[in-house]
Design a protein that fits this description.
about 40% helix; three-stranded antiparallel β-sheet; 3 strands
């Protein structure tokens, strides 16, 4: 994956941050929004696009774009850096290969321990019952 080529496909939009602020907040657009169109991307092949679309299934909009936003900092430049870093981390996580699961047997000692615990619990509960009167 070519990170520089991927960064060239990103689009940024700057808007005003929400929340309370002082005299400066209504004049400055410091919130950074990152837009990335996964369907039209030239960076990934079809297999990677399919894997990423499954990973981002809740985050993709109707056009097949991913939208991330950051308004943590007062600095527009810092917000852009943070949102880009988040995006790259998400892409890395989405492309990560799943580990092959190796089926293992349950050890005999674990089975014995579980059955012993069941037996103890069972006797504890039977001892709580009132005794039966036989005539």
């Amino acid at each position: 994956m070519n990170i520089e080529f991927l960064k060239s496909e990103l689009t940024y939009k700057y808007v005003r941050s929400s929340g309370s602020g002082g005299q400066h907040v209504n004049k400055v657009s410091s919130k950074a929004e990152l837009y990335f169109n996964l369907e039209n991307s030239q960076v990934f092949n079809e297999v990677e696009k399919l894997k990423l679309s499954q990973f981002f299934n809740n985050r993709l909009n109707k056009e097949g774009s991913i939208v991330l936003a950051c308004d943590e900092s007062r600095s527009q430049f810092r917000n852009k850096a943070i949102v880009t870093q988040r995006f790259l981390a998400l892409i890395e996580e989405g492309l990560k290969e799943d580990k092959q699961r190796i089926a293992t047997k349950i050890p005999r000692a674990a089975k014995r321990k579980r059955l012993k615990a069941k037996r103890i619990t069972s006797t504890k509960k039977t001892n709580r019952k009132p005794p039966t009167i036989e005539s």
